[in-house]
Amino acid sequence: MQRIPARHGLIAVAALGLALASAPAVAHAQDTADTNAPVKVTLTVQGPDGLLFKGKIRTKGHEVTTAAGGTHTCDGTNGGANPTAVPTPTAALDDAARKRHFTWDGTWYASFDDYSVDTIKDVSGGGVAYWNISVNGTSTPVGGCQFKLNAGDKVAFTWTAF
């Protein structure tokens, strides 16, 4: 059996200890790094009389400005929904509107820390309908500035009568 000098053994133990001690920090840094990286999603806007918009949009969470609601953060941190900024459905709608030259408007509700989408391409929900937000075929359980999107998600804003 070969003997390892004590000095080499101490160095190996110290190196292993440093590696193990730093492993959780490295893993944690990778988990939270760039959570607001742009993602590509498919966005569909379905009005009462048919399709208003469909296309692939590259988006990430950002400040959104509407005529009725003003300028507010729309990056998933709204209402404490996510600990860091993430891409969101309303940010995707805003990006599509700016890039594809159509309008949308929404009222800001401070109590919800989110927008209510009121009008898209001059089609208003009004008192008889609302713009439902769904991702991958399921209505979002939180507002459009709170729901985290992932690459490849299918986002839909659908005019829905009461």
Topology (SSEs and partners):
Layout (H helix, E strand, L loop, with lengths): L5 H27 L6 E9 L2 E10 L2 E5 L3 E5 L14 H12 L3 E6 L4 E7 L2 E2 L4 E7 L2 E2 L14 E8 L1
Parallel strand pairs: 1-10
Antiparallel strand pairs: 1-2, 3-4, 5-6, 6-7, 8-9, 8-10
Keywords:
162 residues; alpha+beta; 2 domains; three-stranded antiparallel β-sheet; 2 helices; 10 strands
Structural commentary:
With 162 residues, this protein is an alpha+beta fold. It is 24% helix and 38% strand. It is built from two helices and ten strands; from the N terminus they run αββββαββββββ. A five-stranded mixed sheet has the order 2-1-10-8-9. The protein has a three-stranded antiparallel sheet with strand order 5-6-7, with helices on one face. Strands 3-4 form a two-stranded antiparallel sheet. The protein is globular, with a radius of gyration of 23 Å. The N and C termini lie far apart (82 Å). About 17% of the residues have low confidence.
Shape: globular
> Which sequence of SSEs, written as H and E, runs from N to C?
HEEEEHEEEEEE
Report Rg. 23 Å
Return the average pLDDT rounded to an integer.
Answer: 85
Terminal Cα separation, in Å?
A: 82 Å
Strand content: 35-45%
The count of DSSP E runs of length 2 or more, i.e. the number of strands, is 10
CATH architecture of the largest domain: Beta Complex
Low-confidence stretches: 4-31
The main sheet orders its strands as 2-1-10-8-9
Q: What is the makeup of the main sheet?
A: 5 strands, mixed
Number of structurally distinct domains:
2
Query: What is the name of the CATH topology of the largest domain?
Result: Ferric Hydroxamate Uptake Protein, Chain A, domain 1
Helix proportion range: 10-25%
Structural class by helix and strand composition: alpha+beta
Under the CATH scheme, which class of the largest domain? Mainly Beta
Number of helices: 2
